[in-house]
Amino acid sequence: MNTANISYTRNHLSELLDLVKAGESVLILDRQTPVARLEPVTAPRAQVAEWKAALVRQGVIRVATRPLDPTRFIGLPPATPAGKGDILASLLAEREGGR
To answer: In the chain, is it the N or the C terminus that has fewer CB atoms within a 10 Å radius of its CB?
Structure first.
C-alpha cells in the first residue's frame, strides 16, 4: 500500500487518484498517524445505484430535473446586494464590535 502525508496529498492529488484508478490503495498520514485511505470503488453498478437511491430517499441529494446549462458558469459571479459582501466594511465593523 502506498502512503502519503497530507501536504503531499494536497499537492499531488491527481497523481494519487491515478494510482487509485489503477487499483492501488493510498494511506494518508498526518504526522505518521493514519487518518484516511483512498481505495478504488469496487462496488457493482447495482450497489452504486441502490446507494444513490438511498441518498435520494434520505433527502441528502436530489435527482436532476433537467440537464446542466454550462453557460450559467461563464462570466463573473453575480453581484452581491448593496451593503453586503464588502470585506473592508465587515472587518471594520468586527474591530469596532470588539470581537
So the answer is: C
